[in-house]
Amino acid sequence: MVELQESQSKDMDEGMTLAMETEGKERKRKRKKMKEEGGRPLCQDPLDLLGRDLMLRVLNNLDARSVARCLVVSLSWNRVASSDLLWTSKCEELWNGKAHIPRLSLVQGVSKLDAYSLSVMDGKRTRIVKDDLCDHVWEFHFTKVAPEYWRNLDPYWKGNGPPMRRYFHKDGSQTADPGDKVWGGHECCYTIVTSIIGEGKIREHYVRINRWLPLAVSRKQDWSWEMSNNFYCYSSVPDPCKEGGTGPLFLVM
Fold this sequence. Notes:
This protein is α+β, with helices and mostly antiparallel strands. The chain is about 40% helix and about 15% strand. An eight-stranded antiparallel beta sheet has the order 3-2-1-8-7-6-5-4. Helix 3 (about 50-60) runs parallel beside helix 6 and helix 6 (about 85-95) packs parallel to helix 7 (about 110-125). It starts with a helix and ends in a 17-residue tail after the last strand.
C-alpha cells in the first residue's frame, strides 16, 4: 500500500513537472516565432513581463477572491498566486476583528492559502461541538423575560459588577466562578443534541444544561457563538490571541 502511494505521488510529480516544462517551451516557441516574423505580441503574459516579485506586489493589492481566480490562469500563475508571502497578509485581513481563530487553520504545515480557505469554511459553521464549548469562556446573563428576582442577582442587569461567567469541561460538567450568587454550587452537566436528516442536513441542533430548557445555537459575523432560550443567554468571550486557535481540529459540516 505504501509503495503504491509512493508510486502515485511520484507519477503526479513527474506529470506536473512535464506540464510545467511543456508550458515553458510553448511560451519560448511563441516568442521566437514573433521575433523571426519581426513583430511583437499584442498581448503578453504580465507574469513574463513583470517577473515574480513585481507580480506578487500587484496581487497583494487585490482582494482574496480576485487572487483566488488567478490560481487557475496557468501553472506559473498558480505558483505565484498560492505563495505564503501573499496569503499571510490575506489571513491577517480575514482574522482581523474576529472573536475566535479556528484551530484547524493554525496547524503546523498548513499553507496560508489552505489556512484562509479553512477559516472561511469554519466561520460559516453553525454546528457547535464540545471543542467550541470547552475552548471558550462564556458570559452568562438572564433575559428580559426572566423573573425579576433572577435579574436582581444578575450584574448584567444591575450594573454592579463584571458579567457572570461559565466554563464547560471535557468530562461533560459545567462550573462557574467562586462566589457566583446565581450558581449556588449545584452540580451541572451539559449535552449537545444534533438531529440530522437526509444528505447531512441538520433538522435540530441545541445544547441542554441539566434538564433545563434547550439552548438554541447561533453564530455571529465575528465568528463568536451565542446560545440562548427564553430565560438566559450564553455568549462566547473573544479569544483571538489564544495560542493554537480554538474549536475542532477537523472540518465539521
